[in-house]
Every structure is written in structure tokens, then in C-alpha cells.
Amino acid sequence: VTFNVTFNITLQHLTALQAGEEPHCVTWQTVGTEGRWTPSGCTRVGGDTLHTICACIHFSTFAILTAINSMEDSFALTVVTYMGLSVSLVCLFLAIITFLLCRSLWSVSVTLHLQLSICLFA
């Protein structure tokens, strides 16, 4: 049911919001047999660390989704990701070379490990 006027709904958080967390008012939208959370029809108009006030134009199932917007966390995550990827690729390359050069240990198990290493490297 959609209304011409907005009504406010206050939602209580399960835990207090931390610095950098940004709450978003969302509603459940069903499309056919599937559903998804959507911000359409609801906007955040206020609140504090324990409550969020949403202005909505329709009845639905309401929720609060939080997003962390911190450049420091984002930068740290990027550095860890690239470092981990680099170390993994070097180790996989060394494993592939080892499997190819050690013909004396050649068996079905070594062949499977070689193929797995090639797939992970790719």
C-alpha cells in the first residue's frame, strides 16, 4: 500500500552504531518468487547511535542496513589483499616449477597437485 504522505517509523538497533557506520533505511521488495532489500520509498530522517528514524510512503517489512565508510580500513584492506595475492602467486609458481622439475616423484597425486596449482594460479 502506497500513501501520498510520509509516515515515520523508528527502528531500534541491536547494537550501538560505531564511528563510520552509516545506517540506511530499506524495505523488502518481492519480485515474482524472489525478493531483495531496496531503499526506494524510505529515507533516513534522523536518529542516534541506538535508533534510526525512517520516513516511508508504504507499508512493508523494514530494516536498517549499515555500511562502514572508512578510508583507513579500505586502504588497509587493499594493501593486505594485494600483498596476499602477490605472495600466493609466487608460492603457486614455485609449487608448479617444483612439480615439473621433480620427475623422480612423479605419480597420480603429484599430477593432480600440479593441475590444481595451475588452476589456482590462473
UniProtKB/TrEMBL annotation:
Keywords: Disulfide bond, Glycoprotein, Membrane, Transmembrane, Transmembrane helix. GO terms for molecular function: G protein-coupled receptor activity. GO terms for biological process: adenylate cyclase-activating G protein-coupled receptor signaling pathway. This is AGRE1 protein. Gene3D superfamilies: 2.60.220.50, Rhodopsin 7-helix transmembrane proteins (1.20.1070.10). It holds the Pfam family 7tm_2. GO terms for cellular component: plasma membrane. The chain crosses the membrane at residues 49-68, 75-101. The lineage of its organism: Eukaryota, Metazoa, Chordata, Craniata, Vertebrata.
